[in-house]
Specification:
Chain A: Pfam families: Fer2_BFD, Fer4_7. The complex is a heterodimer of chains A (about 210) and B (about 475). With about 210 residues, chain A is of the alpha+beta class. Chain A contains 8 helices and 4 strands. With about 475 residues, chain B is of the alpha/beta class. In chain B, the strands form 4 sheets. In chain B, strands 1-17-16-10-13-14-15 form a 7-stranded mixed beta sheet, sandwiched between helices. Classes of the chains: A alpha+beta (about 210), B alpha/beta (about 475). At the A-B interface, β1, α2, α6 and α8 of A face β6, α8, α9 and α13 of B.
Chain lengths: ~210, ~475
Amino acid sequence: MKRVTLLAEVQQDVCRGCKVCEKVCPVYAISVTDRKANVKADACRGCTNCESRCPFHAIKMVKREEPFTIGVDVSKYDSGKIRELCEKAHLNPEQVICYCVGVRAEEVAAAILGGAKTPDEISSLTGIRTGCTIECIQPLLRLVEAAGIELKRDESGWQWYGVTPTAWTLPEDVVQKYNKRGFYFEEDKELLDRVVHTNPEGEETK
Amino acid sequence: MNYTEMMHQPIKPILPKPSQYGIDPSLVKTRVSEMPGMVSLYLRELFPDLPPVLLPGGPDAIQNVRKAAEESLMKVDMSMIKPEHSVNVLASHHGFTLFGGEPYAELLKAIKDVVEKRTGCKDIRLRAGVGMRFRETEEYIKRYGLDTYYNGKAIGVAPIDEGIPIETEIGTLYGIKKVYDADWIIHAHHTDVREVHFHRQVDKAVKPFGMSYARCETRSTYHQNLGPRAANFTARAIFESKFVQSKFAFAAFLNCGPHGVIGADCDNDLYALNDRATFVGCQLYGKIMTLFGEVDKCIAVLDFPCPVPYVFSAGVIYANFTGANTDLYDMESPLPPYTWYTEAFYRKNGQPLLEDTPPMNPAIKMCVHNYAWTGYPSEFFSKNIPTVVVGEEQGKLFDTDSMNIGYMDYAVTARSTEQAMQFAYNVTGTDKVVIFDGAMGGMNVSESLAKLLIDKAPEVSERVDNVLLPKWLKQRGVDISILNKNK
């Protein structure tokens, strides 16, 4: 859930139509036509990526006159299915996966169960990846993948490139080779599994 | 030495700096170190075995840093760089927050000059990575004249910029394309420990390859996919890739301690340098960290131009002080009181998912946020530690930061520094104050806290040397005899 208070605003006289803003917007709220960037106000989630990467400083963030809140009501979805999807992605439903906005795994799972199929759709609905836009991309991709949805990267943009290794995919030889150099791979995997399998009552179920 | 001899006039804190991430410096009316009852402690008086420093020092301190950098740079092999080649000098934002920023900027200038002189190469560029404030290093590049120094070839790079896949032994990770768009890369960093809660002083010298030089996918791997003590392997995986090894020329580090710049350390072997950095990080910083763990109750003051978790006192960042109730270096403890993995594992009811999660440092009775920046998700701090923010302008700034929409939901505002401190004294009942204001060479604290720290320092020093340091180094596979050989 996110309170959207900001809106990207393009200074048309400064914009040169370079399209960097298009490539970094996690929700495709800005696009360039006729060599000028334009923002779809309803779609902008106020992350500031376009403002922060515009090479010409043509975009500024302004306060919305009418802030609004986005989010998915988790209670409308089967909690068993939410847990099943989260556990498949090695996440606890209650765990926070977006540190800036505070979105939890269950909300993303609910968005997917509700029909969202792409990372940008999920960001638009929940607000995940509209703060720093950096740290939550992997759990987001993991949940989409766990739902059996094929991830298709937009080759024309830089929104995201692909899924990466997890504690559950590390090659055994790597684990053995480096565990004496301070990398606690197995112990951390065990810790993450404990988190994943803690139920709403706070009991560890595995 | 007695209390009086060891308590000095407060050290002048780092000045507020103009930035899009902080309030206008003119709005910072009072620094807490100027208030009654504050003193400074010099770190070399608390821990006499800390090595001498080049900076802070006299008027020639920066020139001495420059000289040390040049001398160290003369010792590395640069024969792989030919006059017709291109070289990217890779920097990270954090270096510019150390000791006023000039020492790191001077290192970057020295690298360019020495490489040019020794190799004849003219196409030398600066690529400066960031944390989460994508314009941050652009600001530093301008502030320290690096754009001019690098002949207009200095840019800030961000984790959402165009990426490049890097094949590693654990799978595909992603770097920032502009970091690697040269024939050679030079890794320009420092030994300051900063985020011990994240990297746990494991491969700290390698970390930027998985962070400030990396795309968001890689950084997310670090902070979400591997676990709190395995995270930094993302950096090693990238560094060891054939792609990065084919471009790596050498590393040039500012050798820092909690009390200042000790010298420069350049090496073609990053792992040898890493072992030395591990020793510095564990021994020198470990003593201050452990001493902070002895504080029983206090008011923590944020008064430094950088985001909430990164304000400094005696080389220790506030984020680490919030974990000073535990031993952050001890690898047997999986979750520090604050790290992103810990934050992730708090339930909706505010309680941790795992019962054995340590709480945020209970010694911090209140946080007075006199001056600190936005640009880093900080709601977890105001949610778990009573926080008073000075001035409505700061509160408003946080309300417009996409990473901190909720920070002021939990903090209260005071109109002035004086009122904020009075409120903190009244409510907490303690007059022990530690100020995170970047005071160089020492720390600004209240007299009452100074007495406690003076009393505890000798025992802490002995404990670190004899008990903790051997354990910490063993946990990291660092052999002290190799370190001695490398000196």
